[in-house]
Write a structure and sequence with these properties.
The chain has about 170 residues and is an alpha/beta fold. The chain contains eight helices and seven strands, in the order βαααβαβαβαβββαα. The chain has a single domain, classed as Aconitase, domain 4. The chain has a seven-stranded mixed β-sheet. β3, α5 and β4 form a beta-alpha-beta unit. α4 crosses α5 and α7 packs across α8. The longest helix has 15 residues. The termini are far apart.
Length: about 170
Amino acid sequence: MNRCWKLGDNVATDEILPFQYMVLTEPSELGLHVLENVKPGFARQLAKGDILVAGSNFGYGSSREHAPLALKGAGTGAVIAKSFARIFFRNCINIGLPAIVCPAAANAISEGESVELDLKLGKISVICRDSGSKSTSYAFEPFPPFLLEYLLNGGLINTLNRTSQTQSNTRIQ
């Protein structure tokens, strides 16, 4: 189970990671500053695997990968939103951070609730705090197989490296 953190509409990449940290490259260092101007102290509260739940147009602004890298470096397990800026969505997938479009879930999930994600089936299950059982489920468009592979391998580069290693092991010398 992963705890949810609620954000609103139109969260820009410069709000996800303030511009002064764009000189950093290590995801764990970037993660220390995630959303620090929007939710001060957020990076210290975020637990590994926690989920961000946002409104429309999440991640608009610059096309740099720093913002999704910061989210991943901070331990974010996924982002569920009504909609994403196109380049931000693709950057998330490329680094292995699930970006899930599900307006119904984004509207209904409250901060502090716990969810389970099934990326293969396209299912978000909200977990009842009292009983620990699944109380509500939401469907989202499952990722195509090649994008799911990127997510399960930790990103595009990891997938390409695995493919390259597999191919080199099958070549005749």
